[in-house]
Write a structure and sequence with these properties.
- By secondary structure, this protein is of the alpha/beta class.
- The protein has eleven helices and 18 strands.
- The strands form three sheets. Strands 1, 2, 8, 9, 10, 11, 17 and 18 form an eight-stranded mixed β-sheet that branches. An eight-stranded mixed β-sheet has the order 5-6-4-13-14-15-12-16. A two-stranded antiparallel sheet has the order 3-7.
- Strand 13 and strand 14 form a beta hairpin.
- The chain is globular.
- Mean pLDDT is about 90; it is low at about 1-25.
């Protein structure tokens, strides 16, 4: 009997969905488009969607060297939150979180957003002080968070052990309206919405060069031919540095692998997301019952999408101390994604030295939570030349020393 993967089954089902076939079958590219977006992940598709939805720019091609949503969008642990320290970060992540709340209705596709709440554990005195500071900053920013006691942590997540052998739980930063969403559904929903607006989503089409004339972008060279455009958006996460080289400029980023794993499915055991930065681990339970587990990024630059034994050992050891019951679980699968890190652990949404060429990158380990807000800001920047959400995240900030330091709030991998 032939066996099919869950992805293949979902793909075949979606092929029969009205309006989906144009997106999935990847039409032959036209010779010219008004706008080209490189990267058919969540951020690239969201950019295309908002360009069409808000600004009527629908002569758009989204080009992807692999398959739709096959990069970090399909490889993350689906966490959505906005409890960041710096004002520009809180603004764009809270915009994104609020857009997730209405996304299923906006794009007429169920993305399974679950506002189950996120607990970020404080396991040292320094971490507890830092989270109290973040809670105060969030109050000023209009982001609903609070620092809660160990007793409240236990109430929200009964399977947790507060008295760990190395790091006891001293409290947590709690965001009740944070949560998770189905990452594949976000990509598929945006793709169908873009396709319905007449945009082309071209898969198996690798960009091999970026062409320019007089300091202005004129088009791209691909494995499926030359394509001209008036505007170009580069939204390729861990491969941003390679595309920037093609366009003639350098980026202050480095690419590393971030690993995750899931356990065998079990009965419902926790209905919140728990992040433990001190021991580098975080966990939630999926709708299928799997425990979704993530840890730190690799300590060296690489472009692999595989897992490694030492990360299983380090991450699971830390989480077993915090959640003793998971010691009896078997691992179901493990994978990696290529994330792009900036020095201040904040993204880049910016014009580039090449005219009419824009870039969206540097989201590090936290890109999925920002998908709709990132697309909103990038679309506004490409359509109008400026965006209030993006103005703090320009490339110039590294030259001018205007860093947006999120090295603590950005997640366990930093």
């Amino acid at each position: 009997m032939q066996r099919y993967s869950a992805f293949a089954i979902a793909r075949e089902a979606l092929r029969h969905h009205t309006g989906w076939q144009r997106a999935w079958r990847s039409p032959e590219p036209k010779r010219r488009y008004d706008t080209i977006i490189i990267g058919a992940g969540g951020h690239g598709l969201a950019t295309a969607y908002w360009l069409g939805k808000l600004y009527g720019i629908r002569d758009v091609a989204v080009i992807e060297k692999g398959w739709l949503g096959g990069g970090n969008t399909g490889r993350n642990t689906t966490i959505i939150r906005s409890n960041y320290l710096q004002d520009p970060s809180a603004a764009i992540y809270e915009k994104s979180r609020s857009l997730y709340e209405t996304m299923s209705q906006d794009i007429n596709y169920n993305v399974m957003f679950s506002p189950r709440g996120v607990l970020m554990l404080a396991q040292t005195e320094a971490e507890a002080r830092g989270y109290r500071r973040t809670a105060h900053a969030n109050a000023l920013q209009g982001v609903e968070t609070e620092f809660v006691s160990p007793w409240r942590v236990k109430q929200l997540c009964p399977i947790i052990s507060l008295e760990g052998p190395r790091y006891p739980v001293l409290g947590a930063l709690w965001q009740p309206r944070a949560g998770t969403a189905r990452h594949d559904a976000v990509a598929w929903g945006y793709a169908r919405a873009c396709s319905d607006m007449g945009m082309d989503i071209i898969q198996k089409c690798e960009v091999t060069g970026i062409r320019s004339e007089g300091g202005q972008v004129t088009g791209v060279s691909t494995t499926r031919g030359e394509i001209e455009c008036d505007r170009l958006g580069i939204v390729v996460a861990g491969h941003s540095g390679a595309l920037a080289d093609m366009a003639g400029f350098r980026l202050p980023i480095e690419s590393v692998a971030l690993q995750a794993l899931v356990s065998e499915p079990i009965k419902p055991a926790m209905d919140v997301v728990v992040m433990a930065n001190t021991v580098h681990g975080y966990m939630s339970q999926s709708d299928k019952g799997e425990m979704v587990i993530g840890g730190g990024a690799d300590g060296y630059n690489n472009y692999t999408q595989r897992g490694s034994f030492h990360h299983i050992e380090e991450t699971v050891r830390a989480l077993v101390e915090t959640f003793p019951m998971i010691s009896r679980l078997k691992m179901l699968r493990q994978w990696g994604g290529i994330v792009d890190m900036t020095g201040d652990r904040s993204p880049i949404i910016s014009k580039t030295p090449l005219g009419n060429c824009f870039i969206n990158c540097g989201w590090g380990t936290g890109g999925f939570k920002a998908v709709p807000g990132s697309g909103w800001a990038m679309a506004e920047l490409m359509a109008k030349g400026q965006s209030p959400l993006a103005e703090a995240f320009t490339l110039d900030r590294f030259r001018e020393g205007r860093f947006i330091d999120e090295s603590v709030a950005a997640g366990v991998a930093h």
